[in-house]
Specification:
Blueprint (H helix, E strand, L loop, with lengths): L2 E10 L9 E6 L2 H12 L3 E6 L16 E12 L5 E18 L4 E8 L7 H21 L4 H8 L4 H11 L4 H9 L3 H51 L3 H18 L4 H16 L5 H15 L12 H11 L4 H16 L8 E4 L6 H12 L3 E5 L7 H4 L12 H9 L5 E5 L13 H8 L8 E2 L6 E2 L5 E6 L7 H4 L3 E4 L5 H19 L7 E3 L3 H9 L6 H19 L6 E3 L4 H5 L14 E2 L1 E8 L2 E13 L4 E4 L4 H16 L10 H4 E6 L13 H13 L2 E2 L3 E3 L2 E2 L5 E2 L4 H10 L4 E5 L11 H6 L1 E5 L2 H8 L3
Helix pairs in contact: 2-6, 4-6, 5-6, 7-8, 8-9, 10-11, 10-12, 17-18, 17-19, 21-23
């Protein structure tokens, strides 16, 4: 006799759960939620049964099927929308023999049934038939992976096998319930076999219809292709006349244009090939494209240079503030060009941080000389063909960027800007782009530059090449040797203020639809934006912030606020937000073991607070902060210097054996390297060892040797400007770098004290407090 138990009831809408199935259910009806809670109090068991009418919100016994599944609650999760997501596992079939409605939920009496069957030939045949039919269904439907089929067929429990197969089939609720209703395993297999046979027939019909549709589509595409061919044939009926007109047009351009004899011969040869080729030949289009390129290139077309030095100086001053040395070098070049007409143009390389005006300076040079301006960005290119072009044997071959730029300019003497040359990709299977540039940028070779596609020399010696880069060290040395380096350093705050007043505010007002008197920047506002909202070498971020203020002002005007909109220090945060850089990295007061170095990066200068601490240990030197090899070696050299001077510094002879010294440079995620932090790390270690505080208003830079000598470094201007920006008063620098002080703006030099040093003892004398 079957066991009878009573369990809380949860009706299911549109689904049936089989024994041994694990499934998530979303429960939202109050009575169902209460039933789950009641089940959790008892043995976590619940009776799940499908309701006959899906849209019935309050089903009674008559609306429920008799057979359901006794299930165990595995997990309950409350969702944000108030519903409950429950994970349940079916255990056994159950037949509802009693039904009770409580105030908050329903409870049923269940007659629990377990699967029982006897082995027989008929049963074996039935099992094989079901498995075979299911295998065919899996192959045809492709809705479940073959691994699932293997997992199903290895089951020895026949009842579970039937239930698992039924759960994988996409059946109607009535069909699934019919299988669930079969308490007898043999009857269940027979029912499943009938359903599988029917599903297979449906699948075969679906595949047949799909195949017919595909065949129909292929026929439509074939018809379309044939019709297009017929159109082409009809069009080509007058091909002789069209071809002759095209050839005559080419010959006319060739006779009227100023082309080298070699180019004329090549074009004439290609025209004759065109005349002989059949109209359907694929090579006809290749030849036509090649001839178009040869005829469109400005072989002997030049613009007349404007060599008015005064006008050129005026243009450069109009477009750029500061950059005096760069402007002088450009004017010197123009003066030499005026005296020596045929002298090859130098290759100018503008190196500096982002946003200091390298690209716009090249555009101004073109305007000053009355030349066409072409820009090609080389950042990230990895294929040599980007420079030299593809050979015509390849489908879709094109000339390289150099020849494309020359054609676009329409003259053979444009100002050609090659941007971001330091970011060219490394050599690989597609060649080395930087090596391909050697011929382009060598005055001794570029008068016969040969693009793989054009396949005839083109004279690039009249082009004024301007190269831009952020980091000179990543440019290959052979390429660097062919260029004249002009360094653009960071702008000072005074220069940024002038640039903002003269250029940025006007440009952003225009771009955001504001007229001259619509927006007014009050006194000190631009200076506050520069000092408290930006930390950059150039002015790009500054322009973006000014643009943000202009957009906010434009919105206020559209909303009806009275003009002009006034931005003051008081209401500035309402336009562009809170200041981003109120606190500096510099220490506010002298501390033991903390010194301030200076660093140069691709985006300008920065200060480098350096911390050192002495701990009891075994003589280890611990270095953290993502320091490079050179920087680590500088720290070791500094420690060796300290050991050699331990008696003078009144340190114990074995201090380095009893103690560990830990040096840390903050902002540990940022890689740091270079020898210029040598004296900074040595000062921090000496301060930590001697317990003497380091002045917080002193910044330093310089390489240290084992004997304590201080060697020169690079990037002094950017480093000093960063220290000045961070509120430093005294700069310790190598004595050999004093020649670089003239590059620092006079107003900055006047506010800083510079201490040139040759030895570490001089550094300590200035940096450490007594």
């Amino acid at each position: 006799m079957a066991e009878v138990i009573n369990l809380p009831l949860v009706p299911l809408r549109g689904m049936t759960i089989f024994p041994n199935m694990i499934v998530h259910l979303d429960v939202g009806r109050d009575r169902s939620v209460n039933a789950l809670e009641a089940a959790m109090v008892e043995e976590r068991k619940i009776f799940l049964v499908a309701q006959k009418t899906v849209d019935n919100e309050s089903p009674d016994r008559d609306d429920l099927y008799e057979v359901g599944t006794v299930s165990e609650i595995k997990q309950i999760l409350k969702l944000p929308d108030g519903n409950i997501r429950v994970l349940v596992e079916g255990i056994n079939r159950g037949v509802m023999v009693g039904y009770r409605d409580f105030e908050t939920y329903s409870e049923v009496d269940i007659e629990v049934h377990t699967d029982k069957w006897e082995q027989s030939l008929q049963m074996e045949a039935l099992i094989r038939g079901v498995v075979h039919e299911f295998e065919d269904w899996v192959k045809l439907s492709r809705k479940i992976p073959p691994e699932t089929f293997v997992a199903v067929t290895i089951l020895e429990d026949v009842g579970r096998l039937a239930d698992l197969i039924a759960s994988h089939l996409n059946l109607k609720l009535e069909d699934k319930q019919a299988i669930l209703d079969c308490l007898n395993v043999e009857q269940r297999l027979q029912k499943l076999y009938e359903i599988l046979a029917r599903e297979l027939e449906v699948l075969k019909m679906e595949n047949k219809i799909g195949q017919q549709v595909r065949q129909q589509m292929e026929k439509i595409q074939k018809d379309y292709y044939l019709r297009e061919q017929l159109k082409a044939i009809h069009k080509e009926l007058g091909e002789d006349e069209d071809r002759s007109e095209e050839v005559e047009e080419y010959r006319k351009k060739l006779n009227e244009g100023n082309y080298p004899e070699e180019v004329k011969k090549i074009v004439e040869k290609e025209i004759k090939r065109m005349e002989k080729l059949p109209s359907m030949s694929q090579e006809l289009n290749v030849i036509r494209t090649y001839v178009d390129w040869l005829i469109d290139l400005p072989w002997n077309v030049s613009t007349e240079d404007m060599m008015d030095i005064a006008n050129a100086e005026k243009v450069l001053n109009q477009d750029h503030y500061g950059l005096e040395k760069v402007k002088e070098r450009i004017l010197d070049f123009l003066a030499v060009k005026e005296l020596v007409k045929d002298k090859p143009s130098p290759i100018l390389c503008l190196v500096g941080p982002p946003g200091v005006g390298k690209t716009s300076l090249a555009s101004s040079i073109a305007r000053a000389m009355n030349r066409k301006f072409i820009r090609a960005s080389l950042g990230g290119i990895r294929d040599e063909a980007e420079i030299r072009g593809h050979r015509r044997t390849y489908v879709g071959a094109m000339p390289g960027r150099i020849i494309q730029g020359i054609k676009k300019a329409g003259s053979n003497n444009p100002v050609f800007l090659l941007d971001e040359v330091d970011k060219i990709g490394a050599a690989g299977y597609s060649g080395d782009p930087s090596s391909a540039l050697l011929e382009v940028l060598d005055p001794a070779q570029n008068n016969t530059f040969s693009d793989h596609y054009i396949d005839t020399p083109f004279d690039l010696s009249h082009v004024l090449w301007i190269i831009t880069a952020n980091n000179l060290s990543t440019i290959p040395k052979p390429l660097r040797d062919r260029m004249e380096i002009i360094t653009l350093s960071s702008y000072t705050e005074a220069e940024k203020l002038e640039i903002a007043k003269r250029y940025l505010t006007k440009r952003q007002k225009t771009e955001n639809g504001l007229e001259g008197n619509d927006l007014y920047f009050g006194g000190g506002v631009l200076q506050e934006i520069i000092s408290e909202y930006t930390r950059e070498a150039g002015v790009r971020e500054l322009e973006r912030i000014i643009g943000k203020a202009c957009r906010k002002a434009a919105r206020k005007i559209v909303e009806g606020e009275e003009k002009p909109i006034r931005i003051t220090k008081k209401n500035l945060p309402s336009f562009i937000g809170k200041p981003r850089f109120v606190q500096t990295k510099a220490e506010k007061k002298p501390q033991i073991g903390v010194s301030t170095g200076m660093a140069w990066t691709e985006v300008g200068g920065d200060i480098l607070p350096t911390e050192a601490i002495v701990l009891k240990g075994k003589g280890q030197l611990i270095l953290t902060g993502k320091l490079g090899d050179v920087m680590q070696e500088s720290a070791k050299a500094g420690l060796t210097y300290i050991r050699s001077r331990s008696d003078i510094m009144e340190l114990e002879d074995d201090f380095y054996e009893k103690n560990d010294i830990h040096i840390h440079v903050p902002e540990g995620a940022v890689p740091k390297d270079g020898p210029s932090a040598g004296i900074t790390m040595a000062t921090a270690m000496i301060s930590a060892l001697t317990k003497r505080k380091v002045r917080s208003d002193v910044a330093m830079t310089g390489e240290i040797t084992l004997r304590g000598n201080v060697l020169p470094i690079g990037g002094l201007k950017e480093k000093v400007l960063a220290a000045y920006r961070e509120g430093m008063h005294t700069i310790i620098l190598p004595k050999e770098n004093t020649r670089d002080l003239e590059d620092i703006p006079a107003n900055v030099r006047a506010k800083l004290e510079f201490v040139p040093v040759e030895h570490m003892d001089e550094v300590l004398k200035t940096a450490l407090l007594k």
